[in-house]
Amino acid sequence: MYNDDYTDQYDNYDEYGLPDDHLDSYNRNYRQIPEVVKKFLSYLRKCINEGMIFEIQNLYENTFPKLSEQLFEKSSWPNDQAISHLVDDDHVFLTLYMELYYRHIYARMQPNLDQRISSFCNYCELFNYILNSSEPVPLELPDQWLWELIDEFVYQFQSFTQYKASLSQKSPDEIETLATNSKVWDVLCVLNVLHYLIDKSKIKSQLEVYASGGDPDSVAGDFGRHSLYKMMGYFSLVGLLRVHSLLGDYYQAIKVLENVELYKKSAYSHVPGCQISTAYYVGFAYMMMRRYADAIRTFSGILLYVQRTKQLFASRSYQNDQINKQTEQMYHLLAICLVLHPQCIDEGLQQALRDKNYHEKMYKMQCGGLEEFESCFQFACPKFLCLHPPNPDNPNEDYVREAIKHQTHVFMEEVIQQKMLPTIRSYLKLYTTLPLSKLATFMINNQQSENINVNEEVAKLTIYLLCFKHKMKNIVWTKGSSGLDGKFQSGSELDFYIDNYMIHIADTKVAHRYGDFFIRKILKFEELNRKLHHIKI
Asked: What is the mean pLDDT of each run of 10 residues along the chain (537 residues)?
């Protein structure tokens, strides 16, 4: 049986260092393939063909990354032509292997145009094998591999779209190749694959029945009962969430998950990378839809999960690097949401925000620092896509930057509307009644400007107070399977009304009833004490 004893021999194979420049060198010299790699490939094929799922998982999650680190840190693995004789020209295995091969190139090197196109063709071959069969294919893979396969498929689509968006540094041959292969990594093709996987698995029906407490297998059909199709269908939902978010369609991004219970653990959401990616894109979509309470709840829940399980993401791998980056982005997004929509969060997260020096960023944003808002947003937002074809007459035009610039502008428009609200909130907290003219004077002093008309400021202040009322009342998810469900709720910790130029302020926070808390704890202690006495007797 293949195990980590083989991987202990890595240091013995350093003399097999592989050339960086010629990816096809294996075709010329099979002897350059280290013996440990040959054994790994043969054993991986055997495990896949015999459905040894736990062995596949160990080889995929542990052995493959270790071999990549030791032998192929700055070079590619041998291609399919170089290893086909080792695996008896097993077409399915070679297709799966080439998915890992191209993924390694994307992670460790800079793929060229031919590799990007070849990777797309390899994905088409793999998905055709899975989807065009009249019955479930005899293939079992670990859920982690299936998630990373779908996630990488969407990532490579994103990478190719960004790659072809600018023509400034491309040769005439590359431009001609792009024009010839216009359907490669086409958005409709990517969406079709994800939708076909969802439909084939009937995952939406399964999730609907699962949420109501029924048996998902009753509606799954032959394909949906097969683990490969079921999990690929679920991960494709998350893939669609990501694609729609990258295109700026936030409503549709949440809509595709309408049968997924976002705030409950389920049998479908046990892969950490999938959970974190889902929360990142859902929370971001909520934020852009001005549903700050839902965004804060989404970010808080997943960041607490990451805090509890951070040892899982300590090892160096491209997936863990992505998870750690998304975690850092979510802290930035959480800080933005808390400035725009202040509310209490878990003490552990508050401490994490303090430890990571986010309080300074939040203070600048609360003081109206638009530059800080913009810089936090651009660090934390997804790398948006523009599907507009590049203009040959203007090769220097960068559509990637334009897409990010457009979404930043949409976000900053909302921020500018709320720029004065933190200052107004800070004054209202200090009073129970406050004349409009007095608050206007405070605001004038805060602006440190001369020649300001008080009456004009009172008129402006009235608009800001109405804006305060409007912005603090948002749709908040309460129950239901769809993340779009919800009711209008006021998220402000204070409320007010204006009567004859006088602002009447009320604190809407309900005081904590500490007496009930202590009574419950005393009764629990007495019950525990009685049980201990019974045990002693």
From this structure: 41 36 42 86 94 93 92 90 91 95 92 93 95 92 94 94 82 85 90 95 89 84 91 94 94 90 72 91 94 92 87 70 89 92 86 85 87 93 84 67 90 88 84 85 67 73 84 78 75 79 73 69 86 75
* Global pTM value: 0.83
From the list 96, 97, 91, the residue with the least C-alpha distance to 33 is 97
Please give the sequence-ordered ranges of beta strands (E in DSSP) within 385-522, or none if there are none. 433-435, 473-476, 487-490, 494-499, 502-507
**Would you state the torsion angle of the CA atoms of residues 241, 243, 247, 249, taken in this order, to the nearest 10 degrees?**
-20
Q: What is the pLDDT of residue 400?
A: 74
Q: Is the C-alpha dihedral spanning 348, 354, 358, 361 positive or negative?
A: positive
| Long-range own/partner contacts, residues 95-100 (CB < 8 A, 24 or more apart) | 95/122, 95/125, 95/126, 95/129, 96/48, 96/126, 96/141, 97/41, 97/44, 98/122, 99/123, 99/126, 99/149, 99/152, 100/64
**Which pLDDT belongs to residue 105?**
94
Query: Count of CB atoms within 10 A of residue 396's CB?
Result: 9
| C-beta atoms surrounding 235 within 10 Å | 30
Burial of 246 (0-12, 13-18, 19+ CB in 10 A): buried
How would you write 227-277 as a 3-class SS string?
HHHHHHHHHHHHHHHHHHHHCCCHHHHHHCCCCCCCCCCCCCCCCHHHHHH
Output the six-digit token pair for 434: 């406050």
Q: Which residues of 481-494 are buried (b: 16+ CB within 10 A; e: fewer)?
A: bebeebeeeebbee
How many helices (H) and strands (E) the chain has is answered by 26, 5
Confidence at residue 514, expressed as pLDDT on a 0 to 100 scale: 67
Q: How far is CA 211 from CA 216, 479, 486, in A?
A: 9, 12, 18
